[in-house]
Amino acid sequence: MSTNNKITMTHTYNITGMTCTGCLAKVQDLLQQVANVEKVEISLAEGTADISMKKHVATADLQQALAAYPKYQLSEAENHHHQMSAGLTTDEENRTWVQTYKPILLIFGYLLAASLIAGYQSSFTIMTMMRIFMSGFFLMFSFFKLLDIRGFADSYSMYDIVAKRWKGWGFVYVFVELGLGISFALDLAPVIVNAIMVAVMSISLIGVLQSVFNKQHIRCACLGAVFNLPMSTVTIIEDGLMILMGVVMLGLM
């Protein structure tokens, strides 16, 4: 049996100014981008953050990460820091690929089953199958984002090239997804709807690619602030698949 000799230090800090899950997501994403920070767990109720790090990170560096948002103030919490022993790993590190992405895998599985059933109702048509799949995709994903739209907008602004410049795009994007889902379900103006979908998803994919290739530790906002999914190649495949289906549908029209 192999052992993991990595030592991870975890320190607790007080953070003021957080009022909602959107604030929590913003602070978490900012702190996770600090060099040598491995994991950030925040308690909104207690106003504390447990930060795990590979090497000691100065409090000033953590405060600097929040400098652009002065309402969030970080300070050391007395008598609340500790060092994990060698050979221990966090629960997140021990999770398998399937455990990490289980929510997305289940959603895609259900959507694929529903779209196949719809496509086979009379005689199988690939157009119907793809249209139903995309309708379910956008309706389902917009639903999770609407559960905490502010939290999604905060997370989305961390990597999307448009939302970085205009945070309001995160709020608009949710309703664009909802509109696409309804339009695909009703088969409204398929050429226009598919063209809009390809354009929107392509722009979104740029930010995802930049984050993954730069190895940024950012939470994926695809399922809003409900699930803590890491940004990875899975997100690229997810966006790329939707773009590919839209292009195929445009080509078959």
TrEMBL record:
Gene Ontology biological process terms in this record: methylamine metabolic process
Pfam families referenced in this protein's UniProt entry, alphabetically: HMA, MauE
GO molecular-function terms, A-Z: metal ion binding
Keywords, comma-separated and alphabetical: Membrane, Metal-binding, Transmembrane, Transmembrane helix
Transmembrane regions: 104-122, 128-147, 168-186, 192-213, 225-252
Main location: membrane
Ranges of residues in domain HMA: 9-77
Domain of life: Bacteria
Lineage: Bacteria, Pseudomonadati, Bacteroidota, Sphingobacteriia, Sphingobacteriales
Coiled coil: none
One CC-aspect GO term: membrane
Protein's UniProt keywords contain Transmembrane helix: yes
Database matches in PROSITE patterns: HMA_1, HMA_2
Subcellular location: Membrane
Organism for this UniProt entry: Mucilaginibacter oryzae
Protein name: Copper chaperone CopZ
Membrane topology: Multi-pass membrane protein
